[in-house]
Amino acid sequence: MKKSWFQKFIEEKVLCRKVQNSHKYLGGVWPWVASAPDPSLINWKNLGVSACSRFVRQVIILLLCLILIAAGFTGVVYAINYNIDMQSSVWSESSCGTQVITNDQAYADYNPETPETS
Description:
Blueprint: H1 5-14, H2 51-90, H3 103-110
């Protein structure tokens, strides 16, 4: 019968019992060992970089990326609003005055080769 992690914890730590050393196996299987890389391939300068320094750099990069995404999103929203404003100012009903233009008249004006039917 296989013991749960809680039972193993109680036996080893609380009851101080010696348990058979099974730590050499990972999940019941002997771990696979590979040879180390060639020392010339290791970037030795990075060994002096602390975990705190790496974390600070990652946070700075994250903030810069978020600022860039927010700026792009703001630019797109501004461009869409500008486009809507330009369309409403150029093609408003007040620019035609009191004239009523039918679809046939608009098509005849667009395509001058067809004869006008007024």
